[in-house]
Structure formats: structure tokens, C-alpha cells
Amino acid sequence: MAKLEQLSCSKHFGGKLTKYKFRSTALGDLDARLNIFLPGNSVHGKVPVLMYLGGLTCTEDNAAQKGGFMRDAAAEGIAIIFPDTSPRGAGIRGEDDHWDFGTGAGWYVDATHPQWAKHYRMFTHVTQELPQIIEASGLPVDFSRQSILGHSMGGHGALVLYLTSILSGRNTYRSCSAFSPVCAPSVVPWGIKGFNGYLAGGVEEGRDKYDATTLIGKVKGPVNILIDYGTADEFKHQLKPDLFADAARKAGFDESQVRVRGQDDYDHSYYFVSTFASEHVKFHAGFLKA
Asked: Is pTM, for the whole model, over 0.85?
């Protein structure tokens, strides 16, 4: 199994934010990078963890530097993992032609189209490979107490990974939250482009496997979901939070289980994310520390 190689480390709110890389099997033998924040209390034993998934064009650094999560994570004694958003340097034709597809835009799917299937396996990378590599490294992270959150494309990823884990019976994550998530990718331009590119079955395959609005209608049993979006979001037409909320209500989930909040006059940026970061960390802490 590949080993984590430390690239940098900075003390932060009494803990440490460390950047690593390793050779990823899931991503077709490419280097993968990530940041891990460990709170100060992790020196005494394993701590619960939040997995944060970034949005289009982001790397492992954007949320770590601009998200505003670590003060509250440190206070709550929770680790945060920030993976990259796609493979890098696969050398696939067209990989760098568009900002919303290819490099920086992995969409958290396991590609089935032959052109992309070797390297673009972000679903497996996040759900299986990263926990295995981190546990094998001996870092004090307790993956039995894990929750997930994300922004934009990463909000889509967080919802899909969370709901898929419930449907599979694994229940990997105790809770899920999202900022400005792409809630119904099979009906909006960003998602249609991603699904038609990465998946051999195109939008139909994506709707069945990777569309949160479809998946929430299949879930039986409790869920813990918080979604925030800005009413002034310039990409709101790509997000469709209303479709997700409607599907959740039809599936029998009330606001105690699925809360979708429109925040007046906020946009899509990290100014918005950092404003509500504290509330999201505390939301997850209620489940991770129960």
C-alpha cells in the first residue's frame, strides 16, 4: 500500500494542518494530494473526522485556506480531510480543455467511459482509498465516527456519497451537509456535461447512481442533512435545491432530517461558505460526538 509523504505542516488553532501526497492506485497510479487538519487533542488518541469535498476548479487547498472551518473543528476536537477534486496529469485528450470538466472537475464518480475509466475514479478514491491510506499511516483519525460535507460540485459529492452509503447498508457517514450543492445534476448543464463525459451510460447512468434528488427518494430510514445556498447565487440555476427539498418531503423526511436553507443575498463564493462554516461544523459535531 502507498504511504503518505508529508509536504508541509503548519500549526493552526492549537492543532496542525499537514499537506501530504501519495501514489494513488484508484486514480491510475498518479500522485494524489490532500490536506489533513488534526486538532490538538488528537495527541491523546483518535478523533472523529469530517471529509470535505471541494467544488469545480478547486484543489485540496481552497477550503483549507479560505473555508473557515478549523477554529470550530479545533474547539470540537474534530479532524478534517481535504482531498483534491480530480486526478492530475492523466494525459487524457481534452482533460484540460474546459474548466467544468476534466482536471479540477472529477464530479466524485467512478468513470465508466473507456477514455476516463482508468484515472477518473474519485468515488472510490474518497470512500475507500483515502481512509485505508490514512489508517495505515497511523494518523489518529477514527473513521467509525465520520461525517461528510462539501461545496458546489463537492456538495453534490457529499450528498451522493452519504446517501449511497445508507442505501448500501454501510452507513459510513453519521451526517451530511452541503454549501450550494448541485442537487439534481442529471437535469442541469454542469451535471449533464459531466455524466455524458465520464459515464458510458451518460445521463441515465448518472441519474440512477449519482443524482442526490433521485437517491433521496430511495432511502428508507433516518437521515441527517443540512443544506445552505445563497439566494443571490449566480449559479443557482445549476443547483436546484428546491427539487431536492421536494423529493425529500415526498420521501417522508421533514426538516428535522433534511433542512434546506436559502440564505438571503449570499453568492456562491467562499465568503458565503466561511460565513456558515461554524454552523456546519457544530451540526456535525452533534452526531460525531454523540
From this structure: yes
Report the C-alpha gap between 28 and 114 in whole angstroms: 13
Q: Dump pLDDT digits (tens) for 263-275.
A: 999 999 999 999 9
Query: What length is written for the chain?
Result: 290
Quick one: pLDDT at residue 221?
A: 87
Which of these is catalytic: 152, 175, 177, 180?
A: 152
Which percentage of the chain shows pLDDT scores above 70? 100
CA distance 229 to 158: 15
Q: Is residue 78 helix, strand or coil?
A: coil
Give me 198's grid cell. Answer: 465520464
Fold of 5-288: Rossmann fold (3.40.50)
Q: What percent of the chain has pLDDT over 90?
A: 99
119 in active site: no
How far lies 28's CA from each of 2, 86, 87, 117, 197, in Å?
13, 12, 9, 9, 18
27, three cell numbers: 486514480
Query: Is 72 one of the annotated active-site residues of the chain?
Result: no
